[in-house]
């Protein structure tokens, strides 16, 4: 039997989840409004960590997504984010911190039970809510450019010749060229190739590195 903890600051949501877990044969060992409350319960009862924690994406206690997920994962629990899935940046945070998946609060309650079964078997969720959140978050495909790479890209994509870019930044031409090569490679790695200067301009505008006003060649 899978030991489940439910953490949500809305009691009505927790009650619904408890009923769903009971019907599916899971053992709800904890139901509460915050991760700190859950940890306190564990310490006071000397209970081992839950196998799966169903966690609300945003709690009202001032805690962050990263803090909550990281703490639970570090204790050995698998974490399912139970979210309205309209905050892709927060979902991305949860994924980066180690969450096993996302289930939308608009999904049938049985979907949560199914997700718990999947995650309890050591698998990650692969669902529409997760994919939509990731797809809608441009930062998730961020090429992770360095400050220097961003500056070279900004000037080059805005229309300046690479030699002028190098002179303006006070670096060797070879250094500027190497930066642009790395920028192109990084965009390829995240599935956003930019083989031409026009493509680089498009990526720079998408990522807010260059504004439309900057792209006129000045």
Question: If you had to describe this structure to a student in words, what would you say it looks like?
Answer:
Strand 1 (3-7), helix 1 (11-23) and strand 2 form a beta-alpha-beta unit. The protein is elongated. The model has no long low-confidence stretch (mean pLDDT 85). It has ten helices and five strands, in the order E-H-E-H-E-H-E-H-E-H-H-H-H-H-H. Strands 2-1-3-4-5 form a five-stranded parallel sheet, with helices on both faces. The termini are far apart. Helix 1 (11-23) packs across helix 5 and helix 7 (147-157) crosses helix 9. With 218 residues, the chain is α/β, with parallel strands linked by helices.
Please tell me how large the radius of gyration is: 23 Å
Helical content stands at: 40-55%
Terminus-to-terminus distance:
65 Å
Mean pLDDT: 85
- The count of helical stretches stands at 10
Which geometry do the CA atoms define?
elongated
């Amino acid at each position: 039997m899978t030991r489940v903890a439910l953490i949500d600051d809305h009691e009505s949501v927790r009650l619904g989840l408890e009923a769903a877990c009971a019907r599916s044969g899971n053992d709800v060992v904890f139901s509460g409004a915050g991760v700190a409350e859950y940890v306190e319960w564990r310490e006071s009862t000397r209970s081992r960590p839950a196998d799966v924690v169903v966690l609300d994406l945003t709690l009202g206690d001032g805690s962050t997504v990263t803090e909550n997920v990281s703490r639970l994962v570090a204790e050995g629990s698998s974490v399912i984010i139970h979210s309205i899935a309209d905050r892709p940046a927060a979902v991305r945070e949860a994924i980066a911190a180690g969450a096993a998946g996302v289930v939308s609060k608009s999904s049938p309650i049985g979907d949560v039970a199914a997700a718990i079964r999947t995650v309890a078997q050591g698998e990650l969720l692969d669902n529409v809510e997760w994919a939509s959140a990731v797809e809608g978050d441009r930062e998730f495909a961020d090429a992770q450019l360095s400050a220097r790479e961003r500056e070279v890209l900004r000037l080059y994509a805005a229309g300046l010749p690479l030699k002028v870019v190098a002179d303006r930044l006070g670096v060797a031409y070879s250094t500027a060229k190497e930066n642009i090569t790395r920028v192109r490679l990084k965009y390829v790695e995240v599935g956003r190739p930019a083989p031409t200067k026009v493509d680089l301009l498009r990526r720079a505008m998408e990522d807010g590195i260059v504004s439309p006003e900057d792209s006129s060649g000045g």
